[in-house]
Structure prediction request, 370 residues.
Amino acid sequence: MRIRYNGGVHIPAVFPVSGPDSIAADDAPRRPSYPTGRASAATPDEILVVGADRGLRSVMEQVAQVAPTDAPVMLTGETGSGKEVVARLIHARSARARGPMVRVNCGAIAPELVDSELFGHERGSFTGASQTRLGWFERAHGGTLFLDEVAELSLAAQVRLLRVLQDGELERVGGSKSVRVDVRVVTATHRDLRSLCARGEMREDLFYRLAVFSVEIPPLRERLCDLPALAAHFAERAGLRLSGTPLTVARDDLELLLSHPWPGNVRELSAVVERAAILGNGARLEVARALEGHGASVTAPRTGEAFATLAAATRRHIEEALSRTRGRIEGPNGAAALLGLNPHTLRGKMRKLGVEWSRFRETALERRSA
Prediction:
């Protein structure tokens, strides 16, 4: 396994099985074998996490803590923020890395098919059940089961899920024998599960079973320091795919991207850059056109308009962070944490740029005395 923390992380991982193929099975649990050409534990791939040492540094630290354990993990965050990527990282850094990584979108399963999809069914158990089929739990045996949008499961399905998590056993639909499964469960949701519990839409006992360790993925608008690297990555990928030549992001285009609110997060950024590359026929990025209708101001900078240097922009950003934290640099509420930097790194930048932290501490004291 190869891990690199210099702006990105490359980790061999296994992509989830993507189709509901029927697989004959006996009652003894085993690691499933997949047809040729399908993703399996023996097919390595690389996961790239841009911002691992900046905007996602706290997330990466939590992943490092929980991945080696077998504890259930709940990933929270807005749609498109990268929850599935973090789930794959957890699997890749766990003792189950050689086992399967299976992703299930709970919101895409019809209520009447939940039992068959999750727990499997026996041949002849219902009309159309022409052969025994392993459910997603058995397919993930020896590995990780990623339940995406777990809050979309009905209360009845939540009861059966809780039973499997508690006992480590399941019964296929139409079966009479218990089948033991060894699965680590990672879940994800963009909803407030505590509120759902309060309204009776989520079982509280299941919530506590799933949320042994919770990791919140910040939205892109809260880690804009990662946007230049993300945009560069997506531009390079889009250029190679469309014309065989990597594309780069111009300064004016980057300014437009930074001004966008990104309600769709990283997924939206990827789509916008891809669209910009298509509009530019694979030879350039048409970011302004790609952003049209996406709620951002796409007015290009006026010719001759003063443009701040990177040092000046960095200085203003650091000063804004110090103003918000009242001059505090270290700690969970300090400027370093807000900027996604190591406190020593931040102090070095402040010395280089001539930023005095004490000025912001004095301002805060003056406000109190007033």
Notes: The chain has three domains: 10-216, 222-291, 310-360. The longest helix spans residues 227-242.
